[in-house]
Amino acid sequence: MGDLFQPTHLLVLGVIVFLLFGAKRLPELGKGLGEGFKGFKEGIKGVTEPTPPPAQPISQPMQQAPAPPASQPVEPK
Predict the structure, then answer these.
(1) How confident is the model over 21-38, as pLDDT tens digits?
(2) How many CB atoms lie within 10 A of CB 70?
(3) CB of 68 within 8 A of CB of 74?
(4) Overall pTM > 0.90
(5) How far apart are CA 52 and CA 46, in angstroms?
(6) Longest dimension (CA), the chain
(7) Residue 63 pLDDT more than 60?
(8) Cβ atoms 19, 11 nearer than 8 A
(9) 20 in any annotated domain
(10) Considering the domain boundaries, does residue 26 fall inside one?
(11) 7 φ, ψ to 5°?
């Protein structure tokens, strides 16, 4: 079985793609394929590399509101 990606095969394939999609849609297809490959590459990278543990938030003591003076009754709102 011969080489599949010979220059003449690639040229015929390019002409077929050009006829099917037209000149206006080819840049959109290229952009979409590039973004798809980029997302796939990032997805594979995430699978092979261990994810770092989530950062623990630094707990700060909560400030309490001052209590109302004891001489005044507290009215519910």
Answers:
(1) 888 888 888 899 899 999
(2) 7
(3) yes
(4) no
(5) 11
(6) 98
(7) yes
(8) no
(9) yes
(10) yes
(11) -55, -40
For all residues of the chain together, what is the average pLDDT? 78
Range of the structural domain that residue 40 is part of: 1-49
Residue in this structure with the two tokens 């005044």, named with its chain if needed: 72
Q: How many domains does the chain fold into?
A: 1
Rg (CA), the chain: 32
In a domain, 64, yes or no: no
CA angle 59, 64, 69 (to 5 degrees): 170
Query: How far apart (Å, rounded) are the C-alpha atoms in residues 34 and 40?
Result: 10
Contacts (Cβ under 8 Å, ≥6 apart) of 74: 68
Residue 26 carries which side chain, given as an amino acid letter? L
d(CA 44, CA 36): 12
Residue with tokens 């909560």: 62
Of 37, 15, 36, the closest CA to residue 26 belongs to 15
